[in-house]
Amino acid sequence: MVLRILIVDDHEVVRLGLRSLLERYPEFSVVAEAGTAQEALERVRQHHPDVVLMDIRLPGKNGIDACEEIKREMPETQVIMLTSYAEDDMLFDAISAGAAGYVLKQVGGNELVRAIRCVGNGEALLDPAITQRVLERVRQAARQEQAAAFTDLTEQELRVLGLVAEGKTNKEIAKALYLGEGTVRNYVSSILSKLALTNRAEAAAYAVRHGLQEFLREFG
Predict the structure, then answer these.
(1) Of 112, 103, 121, 100, which is closest to residue 20 (Cα–Cα)?
(2) Nearest-angstrom CA–CA distance, 11 and 192
(3) Which residues pair with 102 in a beta bridge?
(4) What average pLDDT values come out for the chain (220 residues) when binned by 10 residues?
(5) Within 13 Å of residue 184, how many CA atoms lie on the same side as its CB?
(6) Which residues contact 94 (CB under 8 A, 6 or more apart)?
(7) What is the pTM of this model?
(8) Any idea what DSSP says for residue 122?
(9) DSSP state, 2?
């Protein structure tokens, strides 16, 4: 199978260099070039490429906007975003726009070819230099989601909820936290009220679903 490729970059020298590289491989066919987002959309409609190599920074409408339009009109076309800088906001905007790959222009020719093959086979790809940043952003989002789930609870209520999730009775919780059973009952009632839950079983399920134990280890 020959992959049909569209090259999009506002610098003619870059387009020529990419074409020269890709035409060394019989499995690739460069069907067109474009220098702007609008030209890219027109070429995609005309040539129906399998893969678009898209510069993220283009005059006027940027590559991310063009990627979003391409994926909306032709979801089967895969887009690899090319950039000189690993900028977090653009990276996540590109992924949200439907880009299948995000590759730094500094990569070697063999790495770019591998990226095109990978995306052409329907796989998603990120340049190794920025994969760690993606993972960290995902972890950060998870931490923020956890924090939001428990933001209304006091530290002591978090401890009580953690023990409720472990299946402890009020008596056992009172002993563990050096509290009276009546105080524990009050804490449990407050927790249920704040989380809009009706019973201990729901509270335990909520704690597990939102990763309370991990949250306590990290922030406790």
Answers:
(1) 112
(2) 60
(3) 81, 126
(4) 94 93 94 95 95 91 90 92 72 79 82 88 66 61 72 91 92 93 94 93 89 72
(5) 21
(6) 56, 63, 64, 67, 81, 102
(7) 0.60
(8) T
(9) P
Q: Specify whether the CB–CB gap between 165 and 207 falls below 8 A.
A: yes
- CA separation, residue 50 to residues 37, 47, 108, 120, 140 (Å): 17, 9, 22, 7, 34
94, 96, 101, 105: CA torsion to nearest 10: 10
Looking only at Cα atoms, what is the longest distance across the chain? 78
Domains of the chain: 3-138 (3.40.50.2300), 150-219 (1.10.10.10)
Provide the pLDDT for residue 84.
77
Phi and psi angles of residue 64, each rounded to the nearest 5 degrees, phi first: -65, -45
pLDDT at 137: 65
CA-based radius of gyration for the chain:
26
